[in-house]
TrEMBL record, chain B:
Pfam families: BPD_transp_1, BPD_transp_1_N. This is ABC transporter permease. Signal peptide: none annotated. Keywords: Cell membrane, Membrane, Transmembrane, Transmembrane helix, Transport. Residues 95-304 form the ABC transmembrane type-1 domain. SUPFAM superfamilies: MetI-like.
């Protein structure tokens, strides 16, 4: 038998193939696939938006300042800022060499153009009303003393100015290039400064963002929505998958890498899967039981207090959240820099005291209607447990299950006896109290109508000194617990599941993903 | 024929107008409105009022209705409140997805159910009949979402033959698109087989008892020919009516199956829009569904003479 030597052509072909394979491997795009439970509304930051929109857009655009991990404010496109002595003028020093996605370098001119666009009523910016007479402060002047400096003057000092500018639902007051809109002023697509560029939005199916190679990252480590943002994957695909069990199946079969906002039963199931890792972080939302203090029965604080004393908050949280969240009776979220020792004093279960209060109030088993919903399983579960615990002291709670839109309608009109409700995240302690307190006559949705508290709230919004604000918040908390307009139960947790090969992901207080600094193996 | 068609189409106009009024009123009767859902727990009244004005929801309801009807007459279904997309293209886009699944599934179900029903009727009260009837009843009783989830678990997760989530339009990649809709089609086919088999069997039993069948047998026509020539055409008409009803019903939305298989179909669009109180989309979907129902039934009626020469369209 003759052995044939491989012909040179054959060898060259083989070598070429091997080379191609290597190139192919090196050139293969790294892709991270995640899930949105609904399509985004638009790509225009802070205008036609919802939480999904904010989450995607935060990868594409940035503002002057941004929230840190602990909800304090840090510099983002600004390098630093100074506040004038009267507290009205903020002078921002811009970072040098920041590039837009079209290659242009950011200057004070772009900042002014962007801010003016947000403040133009035609833009329909969500946060425009915050900068009007009824909001936190009016913007009187925006100037650029030099190409790296922008000065904004307000009509009155406000502790909420920077937190509002940084708010993700305001689109972080993004600084965008003027080519983001057409000559007719119509929105085209965001040309931002973020670590990712918007690549494709296939409506109802997915949104793709791709790495921006010209990104100028900050040097300090990743911190909330600021710090270093190095995109380590070429592309992130946000798939629109409304059904959560389908999303879970997608994760297990490997067609998704990350799914956020899991429910507690999902968590229990995914814990045992070897191909999945979990990220559990405390969240800022707030779940609790609201009382209508104008209700003929519940206007008696003794009955409200009796309900609060009949329940064991820790037990409810453990059962509902399976150890992923801690009990909290304060309006401020656990993890807030203002969550002092005073904030941790809440209600302790006391059956005898509760029974005594009910006797004093002359309660004789009248039904208390409690609205709840199944859109949020933790809200429904909480209401069931509160009902059962209140039963032990003789309080007769009747649950009424509604769809979320119908419940919101009743909430906004204040048309309820009691309801189990969940608030979305507020990033500043003043805003946490603001969502609860206000005059019911003009704001029927507000649950806590206490004029002194409202006065303290106004002060907390004006002063910048953290120690003075802390004293106000602690005082408000004491009154909040004494008045029992609602029982705060817990702040919840953000539960995210990732496939094992995903490295570098970290959740934070704000329930939005950050895909910079994340790698796929 | 043409005048019949014209008359039938003219008759649909009052029907659709009634549907339009009912839909418009009903959607607004549900508590909650789109602005509240969009703003959530952070609905500041000034913001809400501004948004209502932008969306035209601050106008009196009769004025809103007249606006909608006037635009509708010009073929403009309006724009979605949630994402500002034009409603008609949105509906048509979603309808394609549902229509492919429904048409293929019902056709497949009919191809299986009609012969099965015929054979079961022919061998009435035999073991074969019993198993056909038993199988049909079983399929009829299984909830479609549960069947869908089981198929998803088996073929998607355990065997990994088919993708679990997502959707690719046929225009983009035919084979890939097929892999995504095989399971929904299989689920729907199985459910519909149950419905149609029972109808086909019942109709065939009726026909098998008639004298002309006995006559055909008596004159020595082979049994397969009796079934094919005499029983099938006569027994098919009631089944055809049912197919029409089923088609009209399913084309209006297979929300449950679309949700299980995460398909961007018409049914899910409708359900999502109801939860979001997206009035223009809900109205558009329901009106579109009514049109589909009318059109499908018209086509079914026009096809009758093909199966039954006694029926004339005039």
């Amino acid at each position: 038998m003759r052995r044939r030597r491989p012909s040179p052509a054959w060898a060259v072909g083989l070598a070429a193939l091997a080379l191609l394979a290597m190139l192919g491997k090196a050139g293969a795009e790294t892709l991270l696939r995640t899930r949105l439970n609904a399509d985004i509304r638009s790509t225009d930051p802070g205008t036609n938006r919802d939480a999904n929109t904010d989450g995607v857009i935060a990868h594409v655009v940035e503002g002057l300042v941004a929230f840190r991990d602990d909800t304090s404010i840090g510099p983002m496109l600004a390098d630093s800022w100074a506040v004038s002595n009267d507290g009205k003028t903020y002078t921002f020093r811009l970072r040098q060499g920041v590039k837009f996605h079209n290659g242009a370098t950011m200057t004070a001119d772009d900042v002014i153009w962007s801010l003016k666009r947000w403040l133009d009523p035609a833009t329909q910016w969500r946060c425009l009303s915050e900068f009007s007479a009824t909001g936190i402060a009016r913007i009187e002047k925006i100037e650029a003393p030099d190409p790296q400096t922008v000065a904004i003057t307000l009509d009155q000092p406000s502790a909420l100015f920077l937190p509002t500018v940084a708010r993700p639902d305001c689109g972080q007051t993004a600084i965008i290039h003027r080519d983001s809109v057409g000559a007719d002023g119509k929105w085209i697509a965001p040309i931002g400064t973020g670590p990712f560029k918007l690549a494709e939005w296939k409506r109802g199916q997915y949104v793709d963002v791709v790495r921006f190679d010209g990104y100028a990252s900050r040097s300090e480590p990743r911190n909330g929505y600021t710090g270093a943002k190095d995109a380590r994957v070429d592309r992130v695909r946000f798939n629109v998958i409304p059904d959560s069990s389908a999303a879970k199946a997608g994760l297990l079969s490997g067609s998704l890498d990350v799914i956020m906002s899991l429910s507690i039963p999902d968590l229990e199931e995914l814990k045992s899967r070897p191909e999945v890792q979990l990220s559990i972080t405390p969240a800022l939302g707030l779940t609790g039981i609201l009382f209508q203090t104008k209700d003929p029965l519940l206007k008696d604080v003794r009955i409200r207090r009796a309900i609060a004393l009949s329940i064991d908050t820790a037990q409810i949280v453990d059962a509902v959240m399976m150890g992923t969240a801690r009990p909290n009776n304060s309006a401020l979220p656990l993890g807030s820099p203002f969550y002092s020792e005073a904030q941790s004093h809440g209600y302790a279960q006391n059956i005898a005291e509760a029974k005594k209060l009910l006797l004093e109030a002359g309660y004789r088993g009248q039904p208390v209607k409690m609205i709840t919903n199944k859109r949020y399983s933790f809200v429904f579960d909480s209401s069931v447990l509160v009902q059962a615990m209140a039963q032990t002291v003789g309080i007769n709670i009747e649950l009424e299950v509604m769809d979320w839109a119908a419940q919101l309608d009743r909430y906004n009109r204040g048309d309820y006896q009691s309801m189990a409700f969940t608030y979305s995240a507020r990033l500043d302690p003043s805003l946490s109290f603001e969502m609860l307190t206000g005059p019911k006559a003009t704001q029927p949705r507000k649950v806590w109508d206490n004029p002194e508290a409202q006065d303290m709230l106004r002060q907390s919004m004006m002063i910048d000194d953290p120690a003075k604000r802390q004293a106000l918040f602690d005082d408000m908390h004491k009154r909040f617990i004494a008045d029992v307009p609602m029982i705060v139960l817990f702040n919840g947790a953000e539960l995210t599941a990732l496939r094992k090969g995903i490295k570098g992901y970290a959740g934070w207080l704000y329930p939005q993903p950050r895909f910079w600094g994340v790698t796929v193996e | 024929m043409l005048s019949y068609l014209a008359r039938r189409l003219a008759m649909t106009i009052p029907t659709l107008l009634l549907v339009a009024i009912a839909v418009f009123a009903l959607v607004r009767l549900i508590p909650g409105d789109p602005v509240q859902v969009m703003l959530g727990d952070a609905a500041d009244p000034a913001q809400a009022a501004q948004l209502r004005m932008q969306l035209g929801l601050d106008q009196p309801i009769p004025v809103q209705f007249m606006h909608w009807i006037a635009k509708l007459a010009a073929g403009d279904f309006g724009h979605s409140i949630t994402n500002n997309l034009a409603v008609l293209p949105l509906i048509l886009d979603r309808f394609q997805v549902s229509a492919v699944i429904v048409l293929v599934a019902v056709a497949a179900a009919a191809c299986i159910a009609v012969p099965a029903g015929l054979v079961a009727a022919w061998k009435q009260n035999s073991l074969l009949d019993l198993s056909v009837v038993g199988g049909a009843t079983l399929l009829l009783s299984i909830p479609s979402f549960w069947l869908g989830l089981l198929l998803l678990l088996l073929f998607g997760l355990k065997l990994k033959w088919l993708p679990v989530i997502g959707y690719v339009p046929f225009a983009e990649n035919f084979w890939q698109a097929a892999t995504f809709i095989v399971l929904p089609i299989a689920t729907l086919t199985m459910v519909e087989i149950g419905v149609l088999t029972r109808m086909a069997r019942a109709a065939s039993i009726e026909v098998l008892r008639l004298e002309y069948v006995t006559h055909a047998r008596a004159k020595g026509v082979p049994e397969w020919r009796v079934l094919a020539r005499h029983v099938l055409p006569n027994a098919f008409a009631p089944t055809w009516t049912l197919i029409g009803l089923v088609l009209g019903h399913l084309l209006g939305g297979i929300a449950v199956i679309e949700t299980v298989f995460t398909l961007p179909g018409l049914g899910r669009l409708l359900v999502d829009s109801i939860f979001a109180r997206d009035y223009p989309v809900v109205q558009g979907c329901l009106l579109f569904t009514a049109v589909i129902y009318v059109v499908v039934n018209l086509i079914v009626d026009l096809c009758y003479p093909l199966f039954d020469p006694r029926v004339t369209v005039a």
